[in-house]
Amino acid sequence: MAFGTQDDSDEVMNEINMTPLVDVMLVLLIIFIITVPVMKHAVNIDLPRATNIAQDSKPETIRLSVDAAGLYYWNDVPVADADLAPQLKAAAAKQPQPELHIRGDKAVRYERVAQAMASAQQAGLRKIGFITEPVH
Fold it and tell me: To bridge 65 with a disulfide, which of 25, 103, 108, 122 should be the other Cys (CB 3.0-4.6 Å)?
């Protein structure tokens, strides 16, 4: 047993063995051949045709203001207390339903704003918001 000599069978291989790669590629090819017809298999159905037009209808915004004296303003037009509920019901019946933005003066009693909010809820308005001014 000599440590200094090398036999011809112990030489280092400098090339890649392609046989396992070819085997894996053939297995993948067989899998794809089997699965592609299954993926394309479908029931032929004659589907109805319909137009799909996006409707860009934004709901209008109603500004309900309450001034310092407790008077209501519907989009800057004065409204009597008796006329407020019918106008809110008419607005709730529109499609799409408008948004109600309530603007209350800081000097007004909270009761007047709460009455407007309760009337809007009873009328069926679902989108109610409060408008405030940011503190500078």
Answer: 103
